[in-house]
Amino acid sequence: MAAQGIADALQAYTGLSPAAAATILALMLATYLLVSSLFVAPGAPSPAPPKPPQQQPQEKEQQQQEEEEAEQPVPFVFPEPVEVGEITLDQLRAYDGKDPAKQILIAIRGQVYDVSRGRLFYGPQGPYSLFAGRDATRALALMSFDPIDLTGDLEGLTPDDLEVLQDWEEKFKERYPRVGHLASEHATESNKDDAQPDHEERDA
Q: What is the pLDDT of residues 157-174, one digit of tens each?
Protein backbone atom coordinates (compact mmCIF):
# COMPACT_ATOMS: atom_id res chain seq x y z
CA MET A 1 0.00 0.00 0.00
CA ALA A 2 2.83 2.41 0.82
CA ALA A 3 4.60 1.65 -2.45
CA GLN A 4 1.39 2.19 -4.36
CA GLY A 5 0.89 5.51 -2.60
CA ILE A 6 4.45 6.67 -3.55
CA ALA A 7 3.89 5.65 -7.17
CA ASP A 8 0.60 7.55 -7.31
CA ALA A 9 2.18 10.62 -5.72
CA LEU A 10 5.12 10.50 -8.18
CA GLN A 11 2.79 10.18 -11.16
CA ALA A 12 0.62 13.03 -9.88
CA TYR A 13 3.73 15.25 -9.29
CA THR A 14 5.67 14.54 -12.49
CA GLY A 15 2.94 13.34 -14.78
CA LEU A 16 5.12 10.31 -15.60
CA SER A 17 4.46 6.67 -15.03
CA PRO A 18 6.50 5.01 -12.35
CA ALA A 19 8.55 3.11 -14.98
CA ALA A 20 9.35 6.27 -16.91
CA ALA A 21 10.29 8.12 -13.75
CA ALA A 22 12.64 5.26 -12.71
CA THR A 23 14.31 5.30 -16.15
CA ILE A 24 14.89 9.05 -15.98
CA LEU A 25 16.40 8.76 -12.50
CA ALA A 26 18.73 6.03 -13.70
CA LEU A 27 19.87 8.17 -16.64
CA MET A 28 20.45 11.16 -14.35
CA LEU A 29 22.54 9.03 -11.98
CA ALA A 30 24.64 7.67 -14.85
CA THR A 31 25.17 11.19 -16.20
CA TYR A 32 26.29 12.39 -12.76
CA LEU A 33 28.78 9.59 -12.40
CA LEU A 34 30.19 10.21 -15.89
CA VAL A 35 30.61 13.93 -15.34
CA SER A 36 32.16 13.36 -11.92
CA SER A 37 34.76 11.00 -13.34
CA LEU A 38 35.97 13.71 -15.74
CA PHE A 39 36.97 15.96 -12.84
CA VAL A 40 38.78 13.33 -10.75
CA ALA A 41 42.56 14.03 -10.58
CA PRO A 42 44.66 11.41 -12.39
CA GLY A 43 46.75 9.03 -10.33
CA ALA A 44 49.85 10.62 -8.81
CA PRO A 45 53.03 9.59 -10.65
CA SER A 46 55.39 7.27 -8.85
CA PRO A 47 58.19 9.16 -7.14
CA ALA A 48 61.50 9.25 -9.03
CA PRO A 49 64.38 7.27 -7.50
CA PRO A 50 66.63 9.43 -5.37
CA LYS A 51 69.68 10.73 -7.18
CA PRO A 52 73.08 9.78 -5.79
CA PRO A 53 74.72 12.60 -3.88
CA GLN A 54 76.94 14.63 -6.14
CA GLN A 55 80.60 14.72 -5.18
CA GLN A 56 82.26 18.02 -4.67
CA PRO A 57 84.80 18.87 -7.42
CA GLN A 58 87.67 18.64 -4.93
CA GLU A 59 86.61 15.19 -3.70
CA LYS A 60 86.14 13.95 -7.26
CA GLU A 61 89.58 15.20 -8.29
CA GLN A 62 91.19 13.57 -5.25
CA GLN A 63 89.47 10.26 -5.96
CA GLN A 64 90.60 10.35 -9.60
CA GLN A 65 94.15 11.09 -8.52
CA GLU A 66 94.15 8.16 -6.08
CA GLU A 67 92.91 5.83 -8.82
CA GLU A 68 95.65 6.98 -11.20
CA GLU A 69 98.31 6.49 -8.52
CA ALA A 70 97.01 2.99 -7.81
CA GLU A 71 97.31 2.09 -11.51
CA GLN A 72 100.88 3.36 -11.87
CA PRO A 73 103.56 0.68 -11.45
CA VAL A 74 106.02 1.07 -8.62
CA PRO A 75 109.31 2.29 -10.13
CA PHE A 76 112.42 0.21 -9.56
CA VAL A 77 114.80 1.92 -7.14
CA PHE A 78 118.43 1.50 -8.11
CA PRO A 79 120.88 0.99 -5.24
CA GLU A 80 123.13 3.96 -4.57
CA PRO A 81 126.69 3.60 -5.90
CA VAL A 82 128.97 2.27 -3.18
CA GLU A 83 132.74 2.36 -3.32
CA VAL A 84 134.11 -1.18 -3.34
CA GLY A 85 137.78 -0.18 -3.44
CA GLU A 86 140.11 -2.96 -4.48
CA ILE A 87 138.19 -6.05 -5.53
CA THR A 88 139.16 -9.45 -6.89
CA LEU A 89 137.62 -11.15 -9.91
CA ASP A 90 135.90 -13.68 -7.64
CA GLN A 91 134.38 -10.90 -5.56
CA LEU A 92 133.32 -9.08 -8.72
CA ARG A 93 131.17 -12.04 -9.80
CA ALA A 94 128.75 -11.37 -6.93
CA TYR A 95 127.72 -8.10 -8.61
CA ASP A 96 126.12 -9.61 -11.72
CA GLY A 97 122.65 -8.08 -11.17
CA LYS A 98 120.92 -11.25 -10.01
CA ASP A 99 120.64 -9.82 -6.50
CA PRO A 100 118.50 -6.63 -6.76
CA ALA A 101 119.96 -5.37 -3.48
CA LYS A 102 123.46 -5.25 -4.97
CA GLN A 103 125.03 -3.05 -7.60
CA ILE A 104 125.85 -4.23 -11.10
CA LEU A 105 129.58 -3.89 -11.67
CA ILE A 106 131.74 -4.26 -14.77
CA ALA A 107 135.51 -3.99 -15.01
CA ILE A 108 137.33 -2.39 -17.94
CA ARG A 109 141.10 -2.10 -18.00
CA GLY A 110 141.27 -2.70 -14.29
CA GLN A 111 138.71 -0.04 -13.38
CA VAL A 112 135.37 -1.09 -11.87
CA TYR A 113 132.20 0.79 -12.90
CA ASP A 114 128.73 0.74 -11.36
CA VAL A 115 126.32 0.20 -14.28
CA SER A 116 123.19 -0.31 -12.15
CA ARG A 117 121.35 2.50 -13.95
CA GLY A 118 121.83 0.51 -17.16
CA ARG A 119 120.04 -2.51 -15.71
CA LEU A 120 117.97 -2.90 -18.89
CA PHE A 121 121.22 -3.60 -20.75
CA TYR A 122 123.45 -5.28 -18.16
CA GLY A 123 120.92 -6.81 -15.77
CA PRO A 124 119.45 -10.31 -16.09
CA GLN A 125 117.80 -10.85 -19.47
CA GLY A 126 119.61 -7.77 -20.81
CA PRO A 127 121.54 -7.94 -24.12
CA TYR A 128 124.87 -7.35 -22.30
CA SER A 129 124.14 -9.35 -19.13
CA LEU A 130 127.12 -11.56 -19.98
CA PHE A 131 129.47 -8.70 -19.01
CA ALA A 132 127.90 -8.07 -15.57
CA GLY A 133 130.17 -9.01 -12.69
CA ARG A 134 133.06 -9.73 -15.04
CA ASP A 135 136.15 -8.15 -16.54
CA ALA A 136 134.80 -7.25 -19.98
CA THR A 137 137.96 -5.61 -21.34
CA ARG A 138 138.83 -8.03 -24.12
CA ALA A 139 135.18 -8.88 -24.93
CA LEU A 140 134.32 -5.22 -25.50
CA ALA A 141 137.42 -4.65 -27.61
CA LEU A 142 136.46 -7.57 -29.87
CA MET A 143 132.69 -6.98 -29.53
CA SER A 144 132.60 -10.62 -28.51
CA PHE A 145 129.96 -12.49 -26.53
CA ASP A 146 132.18 -15.51 -26.09
CA PRO A 147 132.71 -16.15 -22.35
CA ILE A 148 136.34 -17.02 -23.08
CA ASP A 149 136.93 -13.33 -23.92
CA LEU A 150 135.76 -12.13 -20.51
CA THR A 151 139.25 -11.25 -19.41
CA GLY A 152 141.57 -8.28 -19.07
CA ASP A 153 144.15 -9.84 -21.40
CA LEU A 154 145.01 -7.43 -24.25
CA GLU A 155 147.47 -9.73 -25.96
CA GLY A 156 146.93 -10.05 -29.71
CA LEU A 157 144.53 -7.10 -30.01
CA THR A 158 144.94 -4.94 -33.12
CA PRO A 159 145.09 -1.14 -33.07
CA ASP A 160 141.50 -1.12 -34.29
CA ASP A 161 140.46 -3.37 -31.40
CA LEU A 162 142.20 -1.07 -28.93
CA GLU A 163 140.44 1.92 -30.45
CA VAL A 164 137.08 0.22 -29.99
CA LEU A 165 138.01 -0.54 -26.40
CA GLN A 166 138.99 3.10 -25.88
CA ASP A 167 135.56 4.21 -27.14
CA TRP A 168 133.84 1.85 -24.71
CA GLU A 169 135.98 3.06 -21.85
CA GLU A 170 135.13 6.70 -22.59
CA LYS A 171 131.41 5.87 -22.67
CA PHE A 172 131.64 4.15 -19.31
CA LYS A 173 133.50 7.09 -17.79
CA GLU A 174 130.79 9.49 -19.01
CA ARG A 175 127.75 7.44 -18.00
CA TYR A 176 128.67 5.37 -14.96
CA PRO A 177 130.52 6.12 -11.71
CA ARG A 178 133.83 4.41 -11.04
CA VAL A 179 133.59 2.63 -7.68
CA GLY A 180 136.83 0.68 -7.45
CA HIS A 181 139.59 -1.20 -9.23
CA LEU A 182 140.65 -4.78 -9.73
CA ALA A 183 143.28 -6.27 -7.51
CA SER A 184 146.39 -6.59 -9.65
CA GLU A 185 148.27 -9.87 -9.44
CA HIS A 186 151.33 -8.07 -10.75
CA ALA A 187 151.08 -5.54 -7.94
CA THR A 188 150.73 -8.36 -5.43
CA GLU A 189 153.83 -10.05 -6.78
CA SER A 190 155.69 -6.74 -6.63
CA ASN A 191 154.72 -6.33 -3.00
CA LYS A 192 156.08 -9.80 -2.29
CA ASP A 193 159.34 -8.99 -4.09
CA ASP A 194 159.66 -5.77 -2.10
CA ALA A 195 159.10 -7.60 1.16
CA GLN A 196 161.57 -10.40 0.34
CA PRO A 197 164.83 -8.35 0.68
CA ASP A 198 163.75 -7.21 4.14
CA HIS A 199 163.36 -10.83 5.12
CA GLU A 200 166.79 -11.71 3.69
CA GLU A 201 168.37 -8.78 5.50
CA ARG A 202 166.91 -9.99 8.78
CA ASP A 203 168.29 -13.48 8.07
CA ALA A 204 171.72 -11.97 7.33
A: 999 999 999 999 999 999
